[in-house]
Amino acid sequence: MTASRRTFAIISHPDAGKTTLTEKLLLQGGAIHLAGQVKARGQARRARSDWMKIEQQRGISVTSSVMTFERTDADGNTITFNLLDTPGHEDFSEDTYRTLTAVDSAIMVIDAAKGIEPQTRKLFEVCRLRSVPIITFVNKVDREGRACFDLLDEVADMLALDVCPMSWPVGMGGLFQGILDLKSGKVSRPEGGSKEFLGKVDENVELPEEVAEEIELAQAGYPEFDIEAYRGGDLTPVFFGSALKNFGVVELIEAIANFAPPPRPQPTEAGPVDPEHKEVTGFIFKVQANMDPMHRDRIAFMRLVSGTFKRGMKLTPSGLGKPIAVHSPILFFAQDREIADSAEPGDIIGIPNHGTLRVGDTLSEKNQIRFTGLPNFAPEILRRVALRDPTKTKQLRKALDDLSEEGVIQVFYPEIGSQWIVGVVGQLQLDVLISRLEAEYKVEAVLEASPFDTARWIKGDDKALRDFADFNKMNLAKDRDGDPVFMAKSAWDVSYQQERNPDLTFSATKER
Q1: Tr-type G domain: which residues (predicted)?
Q2: Which of 39, 208, 327, 416 could form a disulfide with 59 if both were Cys (CB 3.0 to 4.6 A apart)?
Q3: Is the pTM of this model over 0.85?
Q4: Contact 4, 99 (CB under 8 A)
């Protein structure tokens, strides 16, 4: 069963077409029967995977969604696809980073007119840290774009990857005639039957002379596809297409099914855990509150790493220390959900809970394993939170706790002073915070300037921490776990304190 799982994410710069591609993959996979279009110019329907109010208003993805669908291959084997749709906007990079810890491969979407953009490169580097193999999809070839060779060489040079074109556009923009599959020699055309046969590539049958020459150069100039090099993160197969016009999407699904790795071992403090390990283990990479505002629900997303999970079995969260019975595990399609009676390694299941489970928790039968690699990052923006209605202090505390558990924000409670401080990586996260406070918790708040510029978690022996606190009380806070945090006015402030306190470590990350 494990061999039939494909758990993957889609990464891209904003506006490269990621959400449209997600819809078309779900459409071709049979998960939906009508694809909505990406919101554009205030028109059209919003994407099915963007359910949050602010996402509907702005036409952007600001939270990761999980969608599961199945497809039968040519040999009659059923492949289960777990697609994790991530935010494209850089202000939500933390959520994307945590999501990428839960996948075994990724599709990197590139705009044919723009090539590698900054956020694409950042997300690729995250994948490289975990050796996540990448399939590249050059999108929007039905519009005017850059030359295919320029795009391929940019991927190779900027990302230090071997590239292997698997398809080729027959013309681009106004001259677009279809997508040629380099292996079969078949072309998907804008009119007529899909996959209309135009003859083998090396015979140049019916191909424009310029395209035939390009293909000959491409096949001679780039390495052949090597599945081991791809799975090792050294080579990326490249597909050209148009998500909006549905060209190249079927080929992507087939590539994920045929090339992408099944569930891989996951890192722990004591070494990697293999999917074939008998004990049921998994980790929480995301918590989402209020997916169903009518029921004030709270769902923890667990990546199952090993063992066969059965509904009702007891697992022990590392953050709790005592077992909980998982009675109502959920499989997702965006907002739609169904009860999962069982799950296999690679599957993503949702566990309803009331604050028991947090991002970074390991769940296991014996409570002897701790998965690693889901850190908090030091915030780049700090703001004080002020209530418009002071009687709603309890509701605000509850909301901030919920949203910090999700990873939307970080909350710091100063040792001196009553105003709580929220920390985020990007400005848009603050807009999401205010929107969700009002929409989901009926709390109106404003954000005010903070005297601090950044934060560092501090560690050391008790005496060193006490001595530091005696002289820096005004700059100390606790995070939601009660761990001490140094609130710094500048990067220079951090360096100065590090020099003066060599027995303490000032960390920009905190392992969850």
Answers
A1: 3-264
A2: 39
A3: no
A4: no
